[in-house]
Amino acid sequence: MLLLEDGQARATIVTGSSPSAAEAAAAQELQTYLWKLATAGGQAAEKLPIVSEAAAPPGTVIYVGRSAAVTRLGVSVDDLETAHSFTIETVGDSLVLCGKGDLGTEYAVYTFLERYCGVRWLWPGETGECIPTRRTIEIGPICDREDPDFTLRVLGSMAPLPEGTPEPLWKKRNKIQAVSGYVPGHNWAKLVPPDKYGPTNPEYFALVNGSREQDWNAYDGQHGYQLCTTNPDVVRISIDYVRRFFDEHPDADIYSIDANDGAGWCECANCEALDTGKVRTIPSSGGAEDGSEARPIITDRIYTFVNEIAAAVKETHPDKYVLHLAYSDYIEPPERVRPLDNVVVQITLNCECHYDLAYKEDQWRLIRAWSQVTPNLMLYEYFNHTWKLQLPRAIHHSVGASIPYYRQCGARFFSAQASDDFGNEGLTLYLAAKLLWDSSLDVDELVADYCEYAFAEGAAFGRQYFARLEALWDAALAELGPRWGGNPHVYLTMLTPETVAELKGYLTEALRLAQSAAQERIRFFLDGWQFYEAEVTAFRHLRDLAEHGIITYPVGAPSWRGKVSDLAALDMPEADARRRIAATIRAWEERDRAAERLDGRFIIDVVRMRAWNCMDWRFHPVAHLQRALQS
User: What's the first-to-final CA gap in the chain, in angstroms?
Assistant: First the structure.
């Protein structure tokens, strides 16, 4: 079937008589990218015309979306599993690109362009768009009917985008849901707001050390202010809130009723009676050498509360789900209760640390155990952290092993904490997108394909670059232990002056060999190193202050909380301390300038970095250090 011949249109794109906005957009994307393929070498080409089915001419036709004409061809999508599922198939002189829902049709178009035309979208923006020169496009018989391995595929972030900021099309083009019916969050303070109920009804909140009193206006949006989950009024208020939410948001399918982050669980007799009395021993956050702590397992009390809400919601909203994490002190499965069938259990796992085999096996034990408790299993992965440095790493073999294993254990829903940091996390996000759709894909083949498109003639050096990044990450975790995953100290261990020079050397060699558009893609990575080196330098200055006692920052802590020592009381001249502080300020200001130079380029996520830096419990030090110099 000939679609293009030496840049001349040999087919017509046809939509239904009343296409949806998504179907019309998909047809437009198909037309645009077939034209881009024909003109990539600089020659002129025709665009395939787009018409409705009533005006379809004889000859070769590409049907986009559902239509009476597609039905007459005998093509049906009714047996496909999800609204994201699609078919790509040829019937006579017709090619059908059709989804069970609108997203499925869009995914059919993008999959056709990728699989049969050689287009790739490696990261958002023009440099991540790989379009080979294809003056002639001819296809043979096709029958691809696809359902996703994970019905929910979300790569998002804890830090929300500013209002009006669009999600990049990269997600849709790689079959990641930019928008879903899943509403995440630590939401107990939305169910029962502390500032509203605390002053009048402190009994709604956790009894801790004999008291329920707190500063009812100090909630930070995420931490503390846990509920007394056995209080019947708390249950009633929570049910009313979730029912009202679904009434007001009919497009939402899953609402998280997850506990607030942090600890502070209720110690009243009714709540504690639901616990098994067992504990979970975990290493301290400062690393295993600092000892470990035993934490009570409270999963049974948590899911007793969850089930009460879920049962009531099912009466009024039988097609909706409530979600709760398996996390923190409730990461172990319950022993006495089972989540109801409209409860989604979202287990938090961390494949970045699976290079430690004992840690990986414990995490995989947890998912196996939860899979025996519920069929509604959702994964929450950490492809980035709000408190980690924005520096490059590669964890592709861990991602390549973990996502298929999650699927094997019955998980069908997946979300990951992720940002638009495609210079340092882009390979991870690309691989995750591919594997979440089809977990049988071979990760080494995916990495090779990514490097062939990203680095072209320099692909061998691209593969060396990512292999070395992965080896450095593996070695750092072997030295420090899995509790350090994402911790700033891991990156300082990895990125010495010697390894930085080595990594940049692979990119420089790839750039020397590459031609034309691939050079811009390689510069995408090299430009990131201007920021990465500034970030490493700035953080090493901060560590220098800690080593000299100028600030309080334990090596194992994930973030700095802004405490500066009394400079006059140090075992060093105050002038020397001030000199070191001034040098640290300059280094962090240069780091910030380097970030601003990358704004909008998707190399690092500058928007979210700004949001995180402004939170006073993050590690950005300039304001604190400037106050210290002025004192």
Answer: 77
